[in-house]
């Protein structure tokens, strides 16, 4: 019975988005797994329900709506386009009774080549509006993955180290460990140091021969390439102290949005790679203000969104209840790069957001 109320709430939210100009769409529940698994964060990948079809191969139950909606749009959607949807998503839970494994989401996705910041603001404002119209005043948090990615791409270090940091942006502990090592704040792990010492005394072929029977999935050429990469990385100088300090400062930035913008403007001359992303942040704040959002008090965290979906690459946001144990009631963000991955040579800027209908219903105090 509870799911009936949840489903009705989800459908009502999608209808509300449609009233604001979105087109209602359906999305497949059973999806091909091969491409999609790499697009989700570690958390969702570990919690996806998998099965094997004798014809189609490995499949997964839909863990979210954005990826299948993007697939549909890139296969022949209008340009620009705004979509709304409602339905169940499926994720394994780590503890019995922790959270439901099947729950309903309603959401909106905007595909538009121009007015990117205005589209960001519109999605955020629409979700904020519908939550308030249903009696929920929740705590918003915003961020911008694009600023952090720009900072990493602008570092004066090897391309290999920059790619390692970018790959682990969504894994804060691993990212911090790499940054500590690349900046010289942490020593080289003992196991790697031991391996490098051995490599300095012989070739990869010698070490493979000493190891005895050749086992494993990697070929000798792949092992040699990995050895070369480790050796080159060990010879790469540490990040300059001022540059590393600026990146640590950026990771810890939490402030009201206008104050955060002022801080970012202050460090941009010393970290010039972030300037275009900061300019977009400023334009977004103006667009949010035009939507009636108080950007003087709107919380901003530079690291926000780093433990969520890995396809976000710009503006990110979420709305939270007072209970910190609850997941976000609503969340979303910009995912321009995802459309290129799924677009078979085409791409279009896109942003979207979802609402957990069941959690919303619970907070509204509705009875089944």
UniProtKB/TrEMBL annotation:
Complexes and interactors: Homodimer.
Xref: Gene3D superfamilies: Bira Bifunctional Protein, Domain 2
Molecular function terms, GO-annotated: glycosyltransferase activity; histidine-tRNA ligase activity
Protein name: Histidine--tRNA ligase
One GO term describing the cellular component: cytoplasm
Domain Aminoacyl-transfer RNA synthetases class-II family profile: from-to ranges: 1-142
Recorded superkingdom: Bacteria
Matching PROSITE patterns: AA_TRNA_LIGASE_II
Sites where the protein binds L-histidine: 64-66, 91, 105, 109, 306, 311-312
Lineage, top ranks: Bacteria, Pseudomonadati, Pseudomonadota, Alphaproteobacteria, Rhodobacterales
Keyword Transferase (UniProt): yes
Thylakoid listed as a keyword: no
Keyword tags: Glycosyltransferase, Transferase
GO terms, biological process: histidyl-tRNA aminoacylation
Stored SUPFAM superfamilies: Class II aaRS and biotin synthetases (SSF55681)
């Amino acid at each position: 019975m509870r799911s009936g109320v949840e489903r009705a709430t989800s459908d009502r939210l999608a209808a509300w988005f449609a009233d604001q100009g979105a087109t209602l769409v359906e999305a497949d529940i059973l999806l091909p797994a091969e491409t999609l698994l790499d697009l989700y964060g570690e958390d969702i990948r570990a919690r996806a329900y998998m099965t094997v079809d004798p014809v189609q191969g490995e499949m997964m139950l839909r863990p979210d709506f954005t990826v299948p909606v993007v697939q549909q749009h890139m296969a022949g959607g209008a340009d620009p386009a705004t979509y709304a949807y409602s339905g169940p998503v499926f994720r394994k839970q780590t503890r019995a009774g922790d959270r439901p494994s099947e729950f309903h989401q309603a959401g909106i996705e905007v595909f538009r080549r121009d007015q990117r910041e205005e589209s960001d603001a519109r999605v955020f404002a629409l979700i904020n509006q519908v939550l308030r119209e249903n009696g929920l005043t929740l705590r918003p948090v915003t961020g911008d993955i694009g600023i952090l990615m720009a900072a990493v791409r602008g570092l004066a270090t090897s391309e290999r180290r920059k790619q390692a940091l970018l790959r682990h942006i969504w894994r804060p502990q691993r990212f911090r460990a790499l940054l500590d090592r690349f900046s010289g704040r942490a020593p080289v792990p003992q196991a790697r140091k031991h391996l490098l010492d051995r490599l300095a005394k012989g070739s990869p072929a010698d070490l493979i021969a000493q190891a005895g029977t050749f086992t494993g999935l990697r070929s000798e050429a792949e092992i040699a390439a990995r050895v070369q990469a480790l050796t080159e990385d060990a010879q790469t100088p540490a990040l300059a102290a001022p540059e590393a300090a600026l990146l640590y400062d950026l990771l810890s930035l939490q402030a009201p949005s206008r104050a955060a913008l002022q801080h970012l403007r202050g460090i941009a001359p010393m970290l010039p790679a972030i300037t275009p992303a900061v300019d977009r942040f400023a334009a977004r704040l103006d667009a949010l203000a035009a939507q009636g959002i108080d950007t003087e008090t709107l919380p901003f965290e530079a690291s926000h969104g780093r433990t969520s979906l890995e396809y976000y690459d710009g503006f990110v946001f979420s709305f939270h209840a007072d209970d910190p144990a609850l997941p976000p009631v609503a969340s979303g963000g910009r995912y321009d790069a995802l459309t290129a991955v799924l677009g078979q040579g085409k791409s279009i800027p896109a942003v979207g957001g979802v609402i957990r209908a069941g959690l919303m219903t619970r907070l509204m105090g509705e009875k089944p």
